[in-house]
Design goal:
- The protein is α+β, with helices and mostly antiparallel strands.
- The protein folds into 2 domains: 7-49, no CATH class; 86-163, RNA polymerase II/Efflux pump adaptor protein, barrel-sandwich hybrid domain (OB fold (Dihydrolipoamide Acetyltransferase, E2P), Beta Barrel).
- It has helices at residues 7-22, 47-54, 58-63, 69-78, and strands spanning 27-35, 38-45, 89-91, 96-99, 115-116, 121-127, 130-135, 140-145, 151-153, 158-162.
- Strands 3-10-8-5 form a 4-stranded antiparallel sheet, with no helix packed on it. It has a 4-stranded antiparallel sheet with strand order 7-6-4-9, with no helix packed on it. A two-stranded antiparallel sheet has the order 1-2.
- InterPro entries: AcCoA_biotinCC, Biotin_BS, Biotin_Carboxyl_Carrier/Decarb, Biotin_lipoyl, Single_hybrid_motif.
Length: 163
């Protein structure tokens, strides 16, 4: 591929941006190799959305004494409710689409109130056309399921709560 021909590169980047919007992702990074000395590294990210999702509100509360009191109070009140901070949170090990059942119409892997054993599949995450089984990291009871079937998830996003 000629380095001076950028038309196909622009189309590829536009396709990645469409994929980002379509699956509500915050970032996509790809490396295309066309030979030994010809590669294309592309990172497409939503700059305005990534920061609020990745940076919770407590940082301004600690550093900005002049912040409005109602906003600071609500941020402090919401902190204990954050499912990602729950000790029983099972988080996503990857970016992808989460499914609560092995195939459409099949029963869900787990439901609220189910007892699970360590290593038992609790859901699957599709990433790059590969279905990845997500095992329970420990035995316990499913207290909350925090995602909907078919919803996009990001790395570290809380999926469910085990106690």
């Amino acid at each position: 591929m000629s380095k001076s021909d950028h038309t196909s590169d622009v189309k590829f980047i536009a396709a990645l941006a469409a994929l980002l919007r379509e699956h509500d992702l915050s970032e996509v990074e790809v490396r295309r190799s066309f030979g030994e000395d010809d590669t294309l590294d592309v990172r497409v990210a939503r700059g305005t959305l990534a920061a609020p999702q990745m940076q919770p509100a407590p940082a301004p509360v600690h550093h900005a004494a002049a912040a409005p009191a109602p906003a600071a109070a609500s941020a402090v009140a919401e902190a204990p409710e954050d499912p990602a901070q729950h000790p029983g949170a099972v988080t996503s090990p990857m970016v992808g689409t989460a499914y609560l059942q092995p195939e459409p119409g099949a029963p869900a892997f787990v439901s609220v109130g189910d007892k699970v054993s360590e290593g038992q599949t609790v859901l699957i995450i599709e990433a790059m056309k590969t279905m990845n089984q997500i095992p329970a990291p420990r035995a316990g009871t499913v207290k909350r399921i925090l995602i909907e079937d078919g919803s996009p998830v990001e790395f570290g996003a809380p999926l469910l709560i085990l106690e």
